[in-house]
Amino acid sequence: MVYERTIAPLVRQALAEQPAVALLGPRQIGKTTLARQIAAEHPGAVVFDLEQSIDRLRLADPGLTLPALRDRLVVIDEIQLAPELFRALRPEIDAHRRPGRFLLLGSATGALMRQSSESLAGRIAAIELPGLTLQEVQSGGDLRQIESRWLRGGYPLSWLAPDDASSYRWRKNLAETVIARDMPQMGVQVATEALRRFWGMLGHVHGQLLNASQLGQSMGGVAHTTVARYVDLMVDALLVRRLQPYFVNIGKRLVKSPKLYVRDCGMLHALLDVETRDDLRGHPQAGASWEGFVIEQVAALLPPYAPLYFYRSTNGAEIDLVIERGRRRIGVEVKLSSAPAPSRGFWNACKDLQLEQAFVVAPVADEFPIGDRVRVLPVHRLEEVVKALFVRG
After folding, report:
1. CATH of the domain at 66
2. What 3 state SS string does 147-193 have?
3. Is residue 359 a part of any domain in this protein?
4. Structural domain boundaries enclosing 210
5. What is the reported pLDDT for 392?
6. From start to end of the chain, where are the E strands?
7. Does residue 251 have a pLDDT over 60?
């Protein structure tokens, strides 16, 4: 089954406006499938897969190959394996500048964005492909379907597996592939066993403030600088979200450390050995997992690279997600409860930040108000968060 990804119109629009578009996302998230769907809409489109030796050979001399393809869409998959191509693309784009020349697919956003910003400034648009959203799997308000998406995560092959056990095995294998194959291909010179231990530890600190020293001690005395480097690697590979604290001059002492989330909840569950719904419901990390799941769903609905924050003061005021657009500021609190009751810290945070609106997202069937400009919101109605930012009421 092939899903029509909700981000596809944005990719098509970018191709209609820019000479190059970078479609970014972790391995197996669906970049190649989407790119081939779009390529099929462009007669004569050419696809290069840099994991294939024949395609690497064809692009060994881009100055010879690319000029002959100036009237076609050129898709280059796994471009992080040949970052030197960015330098070759600039003169080729400048020699024949038109929209929609190149669609570049990559799995390491940090390295790729640095390469593209240095070589293709003003010539490229970058778009991140998230995991399958609740809208894409057509969950509607079916709480069982939502719970299944939460358990399995957003990788298409994990979601489409015939049963939960097969999905779990697929994610366990992917988690190992990331460490043993993908990270070394990205130039990561770190012992596989060290990365494997770190990857596993991230599951246990998911949703918590980053304490590099404490995490290093849990790994057997690893230096905090090494832990910070490992975090950078996972963030660059789009496997981990580093959620920054929101700072505002309100005369309060604020937490300054970021929070870490394994971006795909299905991958998180594989790291935690959570295989079934029953395992998930009773797991001590269930609330943190639900929180990360909702944050990623919100991020997928927002414009590319919209800044997301959390808020926490040292006197206990806190809210899981703060989103700002211009002078509008929206808050999102996440609760894994059918009768969500926000803490005093939530109400204090709403007051501190003078939020225009706030939402408490929970596994409920219908939305309802619980205070002035505060509503409980079902997870399948997260588009209301975006409306609050962009639509004047």
Report:
1. 3.40.50.300
2. HHHHHHCCCHHHHCCCCHHHHHHHHHHHHHHHHHHHHHHCCCCCCHH
3. yes
4. 143-390
5. 63
6. 20-24, 46-49, 74-77, 102-106, 124-128, 208-209, 240-245, 259-262, 308-312, 318-325, 328-334, 357-362, 368-371, 374-378
7. no
